[in-house]
Write a structure and sequence with these properties.
single chain; 209 residues; alpha/beta; Methyltransferase, Methionine Synthase (B12-binding Domains), Chain A, domain 1; Rossmann fold; 2 domains; five-stranded parallel beta sheet; 9 helices; 5 strands; binds CO-5-methoxybenzimidazolylcobamide; Cobalamin-binding protein
């Protein structure tokens, strides 16, 4: 089994303790961080499919998520770009009712790498908490809302609309598997991105045009 296949298999199996070492071995073998990250993202898709098929349950999804997070910790310093220029502060969070944070954490990491100061509110963030964070932090230029559940799409709408009502000129970007560009437009978001890399490009574009 190649190193990358080993990383994938161990993330799927939720072997958190083994992952940092395996990711390091993959790096030492010359595999680039983006490829290792993609392998772990693919593993989470496999885990999701197994969950949908009733082959695994929530605890298994959770341990796989923990394993992936351990791998991301190893990659994070290597994926950070040049953040020496400041584009302002970005408040980020996963919307109310939603506990998924791996995608949000990747998006945060990538937006930070383009030159934003990040204020991460975590998961299950009510609309009002986004507004409070904008008020309580200096130079907020962007709010980023993540959501992974179809059932929390109304909470994303509420978040965007509450933020926009309080700060009409502040830019808001949304994303997450159930979000589409059409839905983003419909709920009044300024930007949408399908993945972490494009979220960082869109984030910069939103505050510099
Ligand atoms: Co849950 N879960 N989960 N889960 N989970 C999904 C999302 C699901 C698709 C699995 C499935 O059924 N196949 C399904 C949602 C179905 C739907 O609504 N359409 C689901 C479900 C149903 C649930 C529960 C309801 C299960 C239950 O209790 N019966 C429950 C809900 C809990 C809650 O939130 N209230 C639940 C719980 C959990 C765990 C807690 C066990 C765990 C999360 C742990 C954690 O995050 N710390 C978990 C996991 C791990 C998953 C899967 C397997 C993996 C998610 C993940 O981390 N993917 C997931 C299946 C899947 O995704 N295929 C699933 C990797 C990550 C890098 O991708 O998060 O999509 P993703 O992020 C991407 C893009 O979406 C995008 O960029 C990221 C990186 O490129 N993106 C943005 C994300 N946010 C963005 C923001 C942006 C821009 C882009 O701008 C601001």
């Amino acid at each position: 089994m190649s190193k990358i296949e080993e990383v994938k298999a161990k993330v799927e199996a939720g072997k958190s303790k083994l992952i940092p070492g395996l990711v390091q071995e993959a790096l030492d073998a010359g595999i680039v961080p983006a490829e290792i990250l993609q392998a772990m993202v693919d593993s989470m898709s496999v885990v999701g499919d197994k969950f949908s098929a009733g082959e695994i349950f929530v605890p298994e999804m959770l341990i796989a998520a923990k394993a992936m997070s351990k791998g991301v910790e190893v990659l994070k310093p290597l994926m950070a770009g040049d953040s020496s220029s400041s584009l302002g502060t970005c408040v980020i969070g996963t919307v109310a009712g939603d506990l998924h944070d791996i995608g949000k954490n990747l998006v945060s990491m990538m937006i930070e790498s383009t030159g934003f100061e990040m204020v991460d509110l975590g998961v299950d963030v009510p609309a009002d908490a986004f507004v409070e964070a904008v008020k309580n932090n200096a130079n907020v230029k962007l709010v980023a809302c993540s959501g992974l559940l179809t059932t929390t799409m109304p909470a994303m709408k509420e978040a965007v609309q509450t933020i926009k009502a309080a700060f009409p000129d502040l830019k808001v970007i949304v994303g997450g598997a159930p979000v589409t560009p059409e839905y983003a437009g419909e709920i009044g978001a300024d930007g949408y991105a399908p993945d972490a890399g494009s979220a960082s490009v869109k984030a910069k574009e939103l505050v510099t045009v």
